């Protein structure tokens, strides 16, 4: 049991630490990051219940609906809801890169609990595969969602566009990920290039968010009134 718990938790904590430590300026309070992580973790059970109801009521009758509605839209919407309605207005969300930290936190909270449940059901031998695919993909969905949420908060224009993209892009990517798994017999041939693209896109958003954060801090320093001598 301890081995499964360790294998289930370790990938999420490693990825969260990686993106957290990329915050060059004021790091987010650990307590706030932990609360966001736990909020994502608590989403697993209500989402599983809704998905079970949808299956029981035969609302899912195709791989497309399962991938894009039951998984992609449902999971990303609830993560987006927590990020936008609980973290967005918080005083600690004061830099563009912070959106990525909190987006990754809520996504990895969800992914970690989901990972533990799957490992208990399937066995610890699946730990490496799940770390490389579901856990890392959730982290990257969170990166992209958080990047656009940061754009919503710190952009002077096009905020409605960034808000739509903050939900639509992770939903589209998540749905595509699940559709590949559900549809293609030889899914690794499609999944490998998709994951390479997802990592490329996620790290591109990380780089852009860091540039925006650097500029914001430089501008704040530039206009800071001089100390009286």
Overview of the structural elements:
By secondary structure, the chain is mainly alpha-helical. It has one domain (2-212). It is 81% helix and 0% strand. The chain is built from eight helices and no strands. It has helices spanning 2-21, 30-42, 44-56, 63-87, 96-122, 127-154, 159-183, 188-222. α4 (63-87) packs across α5 (96-122), α5 runs antiparallel to α6 (127-154) and α7 (159-183) packs antiparallel against α8 (188-222). The termini are far apart. The model has no long low-confidence stretch (mean pLDDT 90). It is a multi-pass membrane protein. One of its GO terms (cellular component) is plasma membrane. Its EC number is 3.4.-.-. InterPro entries: Peptidase_PrsW_arch/bac, PrsW. It comes from Bacillus mesophilum.
Gyration radius over CA: 18 Å
Helix content: over 70%
- Inertia-based shape: globular
Strand percent estimate: under 5%
Number of domains: 1
Number of helices: 8
Task: Give the terminus-to-terminus CA distance.
Answer: 63 Å
Q: Write down the overall mean pLDDT.
A: 90
Unreliable residue runs = none
**Could you tell me the number of beta strands?**
0
Secondary structural class? mainly alpha
- Name the helix and strand elements from N-terminus to C-terminus, one letter apiece: HHHHHHHH
Main beta-sheet annotation: none
List key phrases describing it.
229 residues
How would you concisely characterize the structure shown here?
The protein is mainly alpha-helical and 229 residues long. 81% of the residues lie in helices and 0% in strands.
């Amino acid at each position: 049991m301890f081995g499964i718990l360790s294998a289930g938790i370790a990938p999420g904590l490693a990825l969260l630490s990686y993106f957290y430590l990329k915050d060059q300026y004021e790091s987010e309070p650990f307590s706030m990051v932990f609360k966001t992580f736990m909020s994502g973790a608590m989403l697993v059970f209500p989402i599983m219940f809704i998905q079970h109801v949808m299956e029981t009521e035969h609302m899912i009758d195709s791989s497309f609906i399962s991938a894009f509605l039951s998984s992609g839209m449902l999971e990303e919407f609830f993560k987006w809801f927590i990020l936008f309605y609980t973290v967005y207005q918080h005083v600690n969300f004061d830099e563009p890169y912070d959106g990525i930290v909190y987006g990754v936190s809520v996504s990895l909270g969800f992914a970690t609990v989901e990972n533990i449940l799957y490992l208990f059901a399937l066995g610890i031998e699946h730990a490496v595969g799940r770390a490389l695919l579901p856990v890392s993909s959730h982290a990257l969905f969170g990166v992209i969602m958080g990047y656009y949420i940061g754009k919503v908060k710190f952009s002077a224009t096009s905020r409605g566009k960034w808000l739509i993209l903050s939900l639509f892009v992770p939903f589209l990517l998540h749905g595509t990920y699940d559709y590949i798994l559900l549809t293609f017999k030889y899914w690794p041939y499609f999944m490998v290039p998709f994951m390479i693209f997802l990592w490329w896109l996620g790290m591109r958003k990380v780089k852009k968010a860091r540039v925006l954060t650097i500029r914001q801090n430089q501008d704040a320093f530039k206009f800071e009134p001089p100390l009286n001598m």
